[in-house]
């Protein structure tokens, strides 16, 4: 391993950071990692036996000055998060105490860690692969249960194992080609074309299976955008509140109050839904309201599902036409305020009747939204890992295109097999870069640029 990675972050340094979020809280966790972690921490804690993985209650001193009463735990490498000697110190929370403890550790020789540097070291020391490191970032950033599940599965190595199996298939294919080149006249004869063809098909099928999870991965990561659209005063904000089950939007009888778009996540089902309450769609001379309408038009363009709302069947037809002109999303027509009129009066063949007031039709609406999203993303396969990042998609698409190139060159049979095999090597490298099995310094930079300090 090199002494420093390409950002000049010397791994010989002992690094320190507060791992918990800043602000008032019962405890803060400070992490110290590197070759001198035990020596540095030892300067501040008296009678510390440094028993591995045993928390020790102690006073923490800066010279003669007592800074806090802390719980201190030693994790000798390689059995630690980073693979190095790690000390974790739980101090009291708040703004002053944790920072004063960190400052004391820095005075004794530690260096403030940069964002993601602990996890970066874990990767460099082989404790995690790059996909697992990303999963830790995703767990921290998760805004829905679905994303939490996907990140945890990735941390368990689900995606890494899939890619490992794919890489093995490619290595076998590469070996077959090499054998064919080196021993074309062997007793068994040349490797049969069928065998190579089948091997290529198997790899492409696995790759396509993974790439097919990209839409689901995007929705799990970002949430499906569900826009409530329609003319003012038809009950859009009331529906937004009723679906969320709590009051968030301002509900009023004056037309045109929701001037900006309001967003909230519904995280109850298989798919996280980003519900958006928009300004009413209508011609207006009010500049601020016009702005809100432009926002709603932008949301309509980005939506996965649009709930087209109106409180009469005639208005509903006009609303659906208006919405259809502004979006490619699936449209669910809704007749609102269904509690006010009897079903006989409110007829519209394809519309769902809902009432924010009584809750009528809301469970059906939610399950219909889920079905529409599922139609767009494909069903969630619990055993199939999801591709949740653009980096994953790009690497797999590159591997796929290299394998297709290999297939074409091999089929043409005009170039030597060794030339065709160059494409196989490129496909293998794309997979290795994705998992972090090759020289990964610049990949590390890209992955850890979004991490928080202390992770
Ligand atoms: P928006 O402008 O489309 O967002 O409409 P609001 O949600 O602000 O509602 C406009 C008016 O219709 C308010 O007076 C609401 O109380 C009323 N309203 C909304 N939904 C319902 C409903 O389901 N039933 C009844 N009876 N009134 C509703």
How would you describe this protein?
It is a single chain. By secondary structure, this protein is of the alpha/beta class. The protein has helices at 37-42, 97-107, 117-124, 130-141, 145-155, 158-182, 193-211, 214-222, 236-244, 287-302, 313-324, 362-377, 390-412, 417-435, 441-448; strands at 15-18, 27-33, 56-62, 65-75, 86-92, 111-112, 224-229, 262-266, 273-277, 305-310, 330-335, 352-353. The protein folds into three domains: 15-127, Probable tRNA modification gtpase trme, domain 1 (Gyrase A, domain 2, 2-Layer Sandwich), CATH 3.30.1360.120; 137-213 and 386-435, Up-down Bundle (Four Helix Bundle (Hemerythrin (Met), subunit A)); 220-377, P-loop containing nucleotide triphosphate hydrolases (Rossmann fold). 45% of the residues lie in helices and 15% in strands. The strands form two sheets. Strands 3-4-5-2-1-6 form a six-stranded mixed beta sheet. The protein is flat. The relative contact order is 0.12. The model is unreliable at 249-257 (pLDDT under 50). Bound molecules: guanosine-5'-diphosphate.
